Amino acid sequence: xxxxxxxxxxxxxxxxxxxxxxxxxxxxxxxxxxxxxxxxxxxxxxxxxxxxxxxxxxxxxxxxxxxxxxxxxxxxxxxxxxxxxxxxxxxxxxxxxxxxxxxxxxxxxxxxxxxxxxxxxxxxxxxxxxxxxxxxxxxxxxxxxxxxxxxxxxxxxxxxxxxxxxxxxxxxxxxxxxxxxxxxxxxxxxxxxxxxxxxxxxxxxxxxxxxxxxxxxxxxxxxxxxxxxxxxxxxxxxxxxxxxxxxxxxxxxxxxxxxxxxxxxxxxxxxxxxxxxxxxxxxxxxxxxxxxxxxxxxxxxxxxxxxxxxxxxxxxxxxxxxxxxxxxxxxxxxxxxxxxxxxxxxxxxxxxxxxxxxxxxxxxxxxxxxxxxxxxxxxxxxxxxxxxxxxxxxxxxxxxxxxxxxxxxxxxxxxxxxxxxxxxxxxxxxxxxxxxxxxxxxxxxxxxxxxxxxxxxxxxxxxxxxxxxxxxxxxxxxxxxxxxxxxxxxxxxxxxxxxxxxxxxxxxxxxxxxxxxxxxxxxxxxxxxxxxxxxxxxxxxxxxxxxxxxxxxxxxxxxxxxxxxxxxxxxxxxxxxxxxxxxxxxxxxxxxxxxxxxxxxxxxxxxxxxxxxxxxxxxxxxxxxxxxxxxxxxxxxxxxxxxxxxxxxxxxxxxxxxxxxxxxxxxxxxxxxxxxxxxxxxxxxxxxxxxxxxxxxxxxxxxxxxxxxxxxxxxxxxxxxxxxxxxxxxxxxxxxxxxxxxxxxxxxxxxxxxxxxxxxxxxxxxxxxxxxxxxxxxxxxxxxxxxxx
Length: 789
What we know:
By secondary structure, the protein is α/β, with parallel strands linked by helices.
């Protein structure tokens, strides 16, 4: 027993000695998260590095872990833009021992962020996880990094990514068209996934490789997945040296076109899978590449499968007879066989499908299962489209020779069905435009409202109508504060990563808090107060025009103005509290910065999609019955801040217009038969009407845009999250852009209010004219003095 205690004490001292190798200053760079799953204890480690991956000290985390724990996720976050992926990445004394309960879970995922470049002098930097620590699969993911070699040369060393199970590049990785292909020299890699390639107005980010005149670089990448966002797929991307041994190619997203002989040099390809938007339109414009499939299949033994996935937006597409010409040159003789989901055969067994499946029974004995969706092709009982006995008769009935002759004379055109991804792209262009014009409008709004303050301060004591001046003064202050917040919120804007514009700090926690509590909460309050002060200006205009101390507006806003103000302040205080609750429950700081594809995963910062009634419960733990209350706060905010104020403003401006015309017409009746005076007064009526209509245009037009968008968003957000009609849940980036359009419309409405006040306030106008005349006179005097010299 004594020896046992001595051994425990000795072990403890050894552990303490090991821990002493990790300095206290280093320890803050390591964060460990533990997760218990039945019989497993999974460990997640976050590591911050400053200049080099060699800074990682395993003593800072390994000695805190039991040897039976499984480290399955390691996040390595670069704190600078100078960290290279090289041989300095090595985990010494990495505690891990295989356990019986690990079977099937011996995987490790490594996530790198902000890597600068790849060092081609390094070799097999991840294999120690397999050889030394007995992991079966190692998966590496790159985010916010630069993918290119520090230099470009070929060597006999194994590649830096050799023996990985999976290598993934996020859409946030910066690619280059002239990338060194030797990054993948002598590399065995099961899966390579590349997201976010685009060549469009908002983003130029394409991974291409330098075309060296070399026989081979020893690259053995078996599975390749490419996701595009409007791009042209060429040989620069599918480089023959890098992908010489690829067996399966998966093409996803929005693809504009393919190079005609793209697949000619890929002799080992077994499957090409198209999972793209607008497949029918794509095939109508791009079908010459079909002839390059399996073109050099000299021994006529290998079958190449090509699969067309039908996306939900084209769920009713079933390769109709009208599309037969797209597949006229389908390479049946090259042993190319098409694959479909089996349910398509029940929709419509068209001549186009029969043509594509022409060699089904000829190749039946050589066909093999590619995945679980295509098991039907190897079954003897499988009879795609029509029964085996009727198959040849159906082929003859289609009369393909006659149909193909018509292809040359007929001009087939396919109407492009705009997919949601294309709408997302359009809205990103709108967002880019908003970001471009916002600073310009912001400066105009600041100048306009600052000038309003200067003028009002000069006429405050001279003008008898102090109530209107006070309302203009307060309105201008609210507008200036809002403009400052609006301009600062540009730190939250991002069109797309590695695109035309993206704030470098929009994902930081502090910038997200700024958007939630400063821009959304305080900004919306300032918008409300600005709108209310605009209503006050309109009411005061009507009271002055009406000149009736017995009218409703005079009694409420003049005689009982103090009492009304007190009641209104109490109401506003209650509204602000309710609105704060709505902001708190419907917006959340998004800490999930590691997103592979922005077109698939939610990638907005902060997360603003929590407003959906049934969704709040899932994301925040709010009970469902309370989530209805939270959503009602959202609707109440819309009713007060948009609907009621908009209707009141429109009504008052309409009353002002009617009252002004009635007053002027009553003066005409009182003037008797003086034709000249009547004509002058009628011209005055027309001029006054035009001025008021222009004021209404500036005051209401942009607020009408604000109101229309808010109404649309509320209508969409009221649908269940499982419904395709809930646009803001399915594609929240669209709703986010619409919200920005809303804010821009309000900014435009307050950018030119100086012109409105110039027209509606005579003393305001007189002072401006006086200043202009003084400036003009001073300018003329200076010119005269200059000329006299």
